Amino acid sequence: MADRIDDVQVRPFEPADQTATRRLILDGLGEHFGFIDETVNPDLDDIYSNYVSPGHTFLVAVSGEQIVGAVTLLAENETVGRLARMSVSLAWRRQGIATALVGHLIAAAQERNFSRMVLAVQVPWIEAIGFYESCGFVEYARDEVDVHMELRLV
Question: Can you say how many angstroms the Cα of residue 94 is from the centroid of all Cα atoms in its chain?
């Protein structure tokens, strides 16, 4: 499941990636919100136990020894996977890394015979909504907080 975009490889998360991946995701949240309360993201304190061990797919994008992107596919049920925890380092954005991560996640969802993938993006996060639309996701619901999007796989 390795792919290269210049010198970036997408691969499954390994326990040795813990510290850098946690920092990457928290930094991304901090950039978006202007601050981050690290205590409201306890799932990131042990990514392997919270995501990999239960059977979810957690991928990282790596350049050399540096984690530059991450994303996960949560199995909501036997037919639906949820894209979550997408983050790309600020210095590495707009180089196709997020697109590659989503592509790998779609392949993983298809391997698991999911019929669709879903995600939620906060309403004001226009850039993220546009990105997911460019990947084929469409809005299926909206509330005061989130835009709910889906990608049909079959």
Answer: 15
Per-residue pLDDT of the chain (154 residues; tens, 9 = 90+): 444 466 899 999 999 999 999 999 998 887 777 777 778 889 999 999 999 999 999 999 999 889 999 999 999 999 999 999 999 998 888 889 999 999 999 999 999 999 999 999 998 888 899 999 999 999 999 999 999 999 999 8
CA angle 89, 120, 123 (to 5 degrees): 85
Domains of the chain, each with CATH number or no CATH: 4-116 (3.40.630.30)
Contact indicator for 102, 91 with CB cutoff of 8 Å:
no
Q: Are 150 and 137 in contact (CB under 8 A)?
A: yes
Query: Helix (H, G, I), strand (E, B), or coil: what is residue 38?
Result: helix
Distance of CA 154 to the CA centre of its chain: 21
Q: Are 44 and 28 in contact (CB under 8 A)?
A: no
Residue type present at position 19: T
For 132, residues 6+ apart whose C-beta sits below 8 A from its C-beta are 102, 119, 121, 149
